[in-house]
Amino acid sequence: MKAVGLKRYLPIEHEESFLDVEVSRPTPKGKDLLVKVHAISVNPVDTKQRAPKDKVEEEPRILGWDASGIVEEVGEDCTDYKIGDEVYYAGSITRSGSYSEYQLVDERIVGRKPSSLGFAKAAALPLTAITAWEALFERLGINAEAKSENEQKQLLIIGGAGGVGSIAIQLAKWAGLTVTATASREETSTWVQKMGADSVANHHESLVNQLHGEVDYILCLNNTDQHWDAMAEIIKPQGKICSIVENKEPLDLNVLKSKSATFVWEFMFTRAMYETPDMIQQQKLLDQVSQLIEEGHIQTTLTETLSPIEAKTIKEAHAKVESGKMIGKIVVEGF
């Protein structure tokens, strides 16, 4: 089958940073589905995994952690899907990825594709939707059903115009929260307001001065190190902070002590990586996201589509993501 892989970890402009390759089509066993991939989305995790380093793969490594497609075959232990079902998912970072015609994925982390969306618009959603949902409703402990209570609560999203921020704003507004999202350019400011943000702050300027008060929750999607001190000052006593961006320098947790504030990480691959007993929660939340889309509460965050899925277009997508200027999500569709 066709795939886009790498053997060396190179700068994206290098002609061999990605290669068009032929690899064997896998066979599903156990709870695995074999999905015929129709569209994939490129995320920052893709570029981080490809980042230059001194390592050479014996066989082409296939990246990619966002896809939509159709179930082609099912393993003997599958009970939730059948051949022909349209699905979307983010997969596992420990397995071969979605830059291939066919991909194996555990059915417990697969959702039913929203019927109102095409494959490209659906492929823009899984990884960011899982990350945003887990961050808001599991790590930060926000009760999505308590909308009247949430109306009194404020959420700050640092880095609101990217893939996760775009969906997190929408989910937070659906849950009833007042949302401030950060953006540093006119076009990103316009975008986060389109997604539903009540107000906008510039993360290149003092957040403390711009917010004029404390907030109940903070979701950090951009440079944890840079914003750590500001987050500690802005968070309310007994408030909660969640970040998805790894720190480069040690974080001083003592600055949260007097407020009894919570700090927690969100990493959407945790459940699949460790095969936690609650893996199926990702299937359930993706199905809930599909329902919210069908009901018109949230929308896809797709902003650009490339075609077909081949080394040239994957390189182009990686370059755009690495530019740090992405708004929403970029998708590559069709082999």
Automatic annotation (TrEMBL):
It comes from the Bacteria. SMART domains: PKS_ER (SM00829). SUPFAM superfamilies: GroES-like, NAD(P)-binding Rossmann-fold domains. Keywords: Metal-binding, Oxidoreductase, Zinc. Pfam families: ADH_N (PF08240), ADH_zinc_N_2 (PF13602). Gene3D superfamilies: Medium-chain alcohol dehydrogenases, catalytic domain, NAD(P)-binding Rossmann-like Domain. The keyword Ribosomal protein does not apply. Residues 16-332 form the Enoyl reductase (ER) domain. InterPro entries: ADH-like_N, ADH_Zn_typ-1, ER, GroES-like_sf, NAD(P)-bd_dom_sf, YIM1/Zinc_Alcohol_DH_Fams. Belongs to the zinc-containing alcohol dehydrogenase family. Quinone oxidoreductase subfamily. This is Zinc-type alcohol dehydrogenase-like protein. It comes from Alkalicoccobacillus murimartini.
